[in-house]
Amino acid sequence: MGAIKNIIQWATDPWGLSVPIHIAWFLIWVAAIAGLCFLVVHAIWVRYFAKPEEFAGAVPSELAAHLPERVPRHSLTARLFHWIMAAAMFTLLFTAFLPRVGVQFDWVTYHWIAGTVLTISIIFHVIHASFWLDFWAIWPDKADLQDAWKRMRRFLGQPAPAPRRFAKYPLENKLYHGAIIATGLSAIGTGIFMMFRVKTIFFPRDPYLFSDMTWGLMYVLHGLAGVGLIALVMIHVYFALRPEKLAITQSMIFGSMKRDFYLEHYDPERWAVEESSVPSVSHGND
Ligand code: HEM
Questions:
Q1: Which residue intervals of 73-170 are DSSP H helices?
Q2: pLDDT less than 70: residues of the chain
Q3: Residue 61 has what pLDDT?
Q4: What are phi and psi of 190, to 5 degrees?
Q5: Of the N and C termini of the chain, which has fewer Cβ atoms inside 10 Å?
Q6: Contact 71/277 with Cβ under 8 angstroms?
Q7: What is the C-alpha separation between 122 and 215, in angstroms, rounded?
Q8: Which residues, at least 6 apart from 250, have a Cβ–Cβ distance to it below 8 Å?
């Protein structure tokens, strides 16, 4: 209980009751240092300890011959969404946390504008992913769990067959996406209500919409989601910049990846190349 008390900043309301007002700001450093520790440990592990990737089975050569030279991965629509969301996310993080670490500026207006952009982009993304993309591609499936078990045993030095090649998104990406959903939706859900506390173009200010206790808890959840996103975004950028992942990052810019990279890492049965892109060079998949 004491620990929970310490991660929150408290105030006394007019009736003498103790109410939360927001998170304790040292959590910014906890999140940043946790993110940094993850990167350092992961980088050391990959450099000095990890064995080379090994997958079960080979891709049939007749299938490989029919693949286009560049395999489409992200449509133009999906890429535009990704970069708009990323710009909104960075703006939110910097406007929220720079003033807490000593860089003072009038941050609230930039913050709620970026929050609105993020909210709209996520609503768009949910609709786009549900009706135009393969909705199930980002959720763990049975093959992921079977392979995770094999990979875990091999990691621990126990005998286990090699896992299959990946679907469009490996299990780690799917779990990361889940963590982003939890933190992102918490920040958005609370952020929309918090706009009632400041002046925006959407609705009249109404700081009495909730009790002090409810507002306080809302600010705490918003802050916890926010610091969680510091670590998550650091980890995401780190992986995007790792040399062995650059082909994936480039596909988020140009839309496609080289056939050899696809054949090395992905299972065409689990992530099929679109018919329309075989055999010519693709223009995306929206
Ligand atoms: C996703 C990343 C986000 C991060 C890291 C973040 C972080 C923060 C932080 C740390 C605060 C200060 C809260 C406090 O004083 O306790 C804050 C305030 C605020 N946030 Fe966010 N936020 C995010 C998303 C959003 C979204 C999506 C919206 C709107 C839809 C939003 C709207 C607001 C508003 C209106 C305030 C000002 C509240 C006030 O000053 O009374 N935020 N945010």
A1: 76-97, 108-131, 142-155
A2: 1, 275-286
A3: 76
A4: -75, -40
A5: N
A6: yes
A7: 24
A8: 257
pLDDT at 143: 95
Rounded CA separation 112/141 (Å): 37
Site to probe by mutation for ligand 1, drawn from 7, 10, 21, 111 as the one with most ligand atoms within 8 Å of Cβ, is 111
pLDDT given at position 279: 53
Q: Give dist(CA 204, CA 115) in Å, integer.
A: 17
What tokens appear for 76 in the block? 């133009």
pTM: 0.92
Amino acid letter for position 60 = P
Q: What is the pLDDT of residue 212?
A: 94
Q: Residue written as tokens 């103790």?
A: 18
Quote the CA–CA distance of 95 and 108 in Å, as a whole number: 7
Beta bridge partners of 261: none
| Token couple for 150 | 């094999």
Residue carrying structure tokens 């952020």: 191
Residue 174 · residue 139 · CB < 8 Å: yes
- What pLDDT does residue 286 have? 44
Q: Ligand 1: which residue has its CA nearest to atom 5?
A: 226
Residues paired with residue 12 on neighbouring β-strands, in sequence order? 18
Q: Is the peptide bond before 279 cis (omega within 30 degrees of 0)?
A: yes
DSSP three-state, residue 98 = coil
Does ligand 1 come within 6 angstroms of the Cβ of 198? yes
- How far is 138 from 123, CA to CA, in rounded Å? 17
pLDDT value of position 129: 97
Query: Residues 41-72: pLDDT tens digits?
Result: 999 999 999 988 889 987 777 778 889 999 99
Interior CA angle at 181 toward 189 and 80, to 5°?
Answer: 95
Determine the distance separating the centroid of ligand 1 and the alpha carbon of 89, expressed in angstroms: 11
Which residue's entry shows tokens 């286990």?
160
The ligand 1 atom nearest the CA atom of 192:
30
3-state secondary structure of 70: strand
